[in-house]
Amino acid sequence: MNSYTIFPSPLGLITVQANELGLTGVWFETNTTLPDELGIKNDSNPLLLQAKQQIGEFFAKERQVFELPLSATGTEFQQSVWEALCAIPYGQTWSYQEIANHIGKPKAVRAVGAANGKNPLSIIVPCHRVIGASGQLTGYAGGIERKKTLLQLEGAL
Fold first, then answer.
1. 50 and 88: one domain?
2. Is the dihedral of CA 143, 33, 139, 95 positive or negative?
3. What's 89's domain CATH number?
4. Which of 16, 24, 96, 119 could form a disulfide with 127 if both were Cys (CB 3.0 to 4.6 A apart)?
5. Is residue 65 part of a domain?
6. Res. 128 pLDDT band, cuts 50 70 90
7. Of 36, 60, 84, at which residue does a domain stop?
8. How far apart are CA 120 and CA 44, in angstroms?
9. Residue 66 lies in a domain
10. DSSP letter string, 24-38
11. Element (H, E) at 95
């Protein structure tokens, strides 16, 4: 059974969802991938509290790597893209092509973009670190302004 909590951040309200295995979602209030059903609200769930703490540390520039169990559901291809996103170092950006190359599918740039856009674990799985080949900021489910702010926070812009 999923449980969730909602808390404020410098970029607006964040919803964090988990099941018994790990985090299943992290969304901004206007995120385009926010599910219709979140489960049971539980502001005292230890994993949700740990996620809230680590996200707060990230915004305070006290954390660059998250140490949380993840349990997002997706296709095998999506999972490979999300795993590749976690390989992008803090403060750096990769292009969609670099992600496609990293997963051994250099011709799958569009599919990488689609999988990136379906990432349910904003911030934790850093899809905001993916940019277009020419260096332009491309879509972000939490909004392009949030993406820009996250990259500035990390010193990538």
1. no
2. positive
3. 1.10.10.10
4. 119
5. no
6. very high
7. 60
8. 22
9. no
10. EEEEETT-TT--S--
11. strand 94-95
CB 35 within 8 A of CB 73: no
Query: Which pLDDT score, from 0 to 100, does residue 105 have?
Result: 97
Sign of CA dihedral 138, 142, 145, 146: negative
- The verdict on residue 70 lying in a domain is no
Residue type, 64: Q
Q: What is the residue-averaged pLDDT of the chain?
A: 94
Res 32: pLDDT: 75
Which domain range does residue 133 map to? Answer: 76-154
List, by residue number, the catalytic residues.
127
Q: pLDDT tens, 41-92?
A: 999 999 999 999 999 999 999 999 999 999 999 999 999 999 999 999 999 9
Number of domains within the chain: 2
In angstroms, how far is CA 113 from the centroid of its own chain? 14
94 DSSP 8-state letter: E
> Which tokens in the block code for residue 81?
């893209």
Residue 109 within any structural domain of the chain: yes
CA distances from 149 to 42, 82, 142 (A): 29, 21, 11
Cα(100)–Cα(55) distance, integer angstroms: 27
